[in-house]
Amino acid sequence: MASGFQTFVGSGNLTRDAESRQVGEAEVAKYSIAINGRKDRVLFLDCEQWRPGGVLPYLTKGTSVIVQGELELQTWEKDGQQRSKMVLNVNRLQLNGGRPKRDEAEEFAEFSR
Q1: pTM of whole model > 0.85?
Q2: Cα(98)–Cα(113) distance, rounded to whole angstroms?
Q3: Residue 24 lies in a domain
Q4: pLDDT tens for each residue of 39-48
């Protein structure tokens, strides 16, 4: 069976500050972005970024970003009910300015794994 290829690219604003945690030897950052569509349509997308490195302090609420990665359907059970959601596994992130934490913050930063 041939394997398929899928990638997602989108731009939006972080809806909250990124949270980070250790998973074994690696660090993972979790955040959500709001992607404005036509008229009043907004897509809220949960993102996971492994090994975020030095970009983590810049991932604050309101920051404008471009993300690229692979969509994954995550499933779990809660209160006897099967739940699921789409999550973007980010492998490339570009900061577009927005709300820097420091005056001397770079206007452009990029992360690639």
Answers
A1: no
A2: 23
A3: yes
A4: 889 999 999 9
